[in-house]
Each structure stands twice: as structure tokens, then as C-alpha cells.
Write a structure and sequence with these properties.
single chain; binds zinc ion; mainly alpha
Length: 118
Amino acid sequence: MFKKGNQIGKQTRLGPDWPGQRCGARTRAGKPCKKPALRGKGRCQLHGGKSTGPRTEAGRARIAAAQLKHGRLTKERRAEAKRRAEVGREIRAELKDIAARAVAYGWLDPDWKDQFKD
Ligand SMILES: [Zn+2]
């Protein structure tokens, strides 16, 4: 604990004589931030020193891979499901049209679907 006169660890404490680089930000109280700056950043983690995300394409791909859980809802998979649904709608519309024509030509009974009931 920090008791009066305690010299243990004094070099590593962040008091007024601390030799390291401070965060250069101004606080909401108008005073300079006293927290130590993150290495190579000049700001603490509260004032913009933390990572703002991957920059390179490889880094972005690595994060995307880390975020992927099962791949069932990727953009590609959803686009493919949408396309398959559209193909299904086209096929059903075509079958409906064929059945209507077959009924019109007398090749099918108007209530031909009833034979598949129960
Ligand atoms: Zn700060």
C-alpha cells in the first residue's frame, strides 16, 4: 500500500516526477490528461490511443475470419439462398401456367388437384 514515506516502487509510480510520456489530450475539465500515453501513440486508451481496427486487407481478412462462427449467414450464402428461392418461384409459376393451359385444352380436369387430397 502507499503509505507516507514508502520508497518501494517509486520509480514506476506515475506521480509528478514520472519521466514517461503523458497523454497529450485535454480533459473535459480543461486540464491535460495525466494518464501515461500508450507506446508510440501519444494518447492514453481513453483518448484515442487504442486500436481503431485493421488497416490492411490481410488484417481485415484475419478479423473477419476470427468473427465468423459457422458461415451459414455470409453475404455469399444469403445471396445464393435468395437466388434459389427465385428459381423456385419461377418453376412454380411455370408449373401453374402449364396446369392452366392443360385445363384449358381439356387435358386435365379443372379440379385435378383434388385427386391428391388426403
Ligand atoms: Zn488521456
